[in-house]
Amino acid sequence: MPKQKLQWITDELSSLKAQGLFTNIRTLESPQGARITVNGESKLNFCSNNYLGLANDPRLKKAAQDAIERWGVGPGAVRTIAGTMSFHTELEERLAKFKGAEATISFQSGFTANLATIPALVGKGDLIFSDALNHASIIDGCRLSRAKIIPYKHNDVDDLRRVVAENSPFNKALLVTDGVFSMDGDIAPLDKLVEVAEEHGLIFMVDDAHGEGVMGHGGRGIVDHFGLHGRVDVEIGTLSKAFGVVGGYVAGARAIVDWLRQRGRPFLFSSAVTPADVAACLAAVDILENSTELVDKLWENGRYFKAHLQGMGFDIGMSQTPITPVMLGEATVAQKMSQRLFEEGVFATAIGFPTVPRGKARIRVMLSAAHTKTDLDEGLQIFERVGKELNII
Q: In which domain, by residue range, is 319 found?
């Protein structure tokens, strides 16, 4: 291929580096945990979505190992042909009970769950009312649907009412929002949004990727947190974060789940999740059903760390959850702080455009239930030292 064909890519990469937006991917040399090994050195892990510390839990590992011995390493087919094992249906039944929903259907990830669900519910000629800060997987699912996408201001119910009124009447419309917004840690006003959905006959969908295992009783999610069982049509969940494994699912009315088995393209055309992963997810459900200890510890750690960061003078935005954004503004500043934190022993990644808007770069601190108070205090000391060195505080 002639070099000039790729010159634009080279130019764009150079531009990203100059703006501090080029992502350098670090490679872990250990399991996920409160501390990880990178480049042969132990680092405090403050940027994983392993919220409950289950990614290396002995109970999940034992379940996965036993499943491999019984079921092998791969499903060998899509779910609709020969890829559905009894483990898959057991997980779906257990998740439905856990979520208080009529039924669930599992997918390869939360991302693919969104890609499957939105185009199956709305299409060309329909409308989608979407929060302006919704996750990329929601945005991509909306684009695939070919429905008209109408954004409303982030978490602004009055603005939602405005855009719904401006676009009425309509035949079929979907209202979709994240439950917990992953970069800011704030939560959607689900109790107010559901009222709008019911008033106007909107299909109401919430992506609870960062509320799963975090919000609600024992981590049952944001719908449980607001007590809205039966009033939210579609809940998207992930098994790749708090559950510590990989996968996604949709919980809701049985009719919607049955429809997704017929029209959810990742379900129809991509191989099923491996037996080991499904078994580990089942073990995670067992743990969450039997105790709230890990969820309680996550929140305790989050409150402690956020209070001390604020006391030092850091701006942590509007977070309402253990997700803690350290707001820095410029991407170059965030990159520099991330590098200095890493050198001092804290792995905390800089987040910039396009993950967040320009001028809103940050360090996204994500603690877990696996962190001890000693871990938190050590991390706080490093944040304070680096923050003062860079004149951030």
A: 22-51+292-389
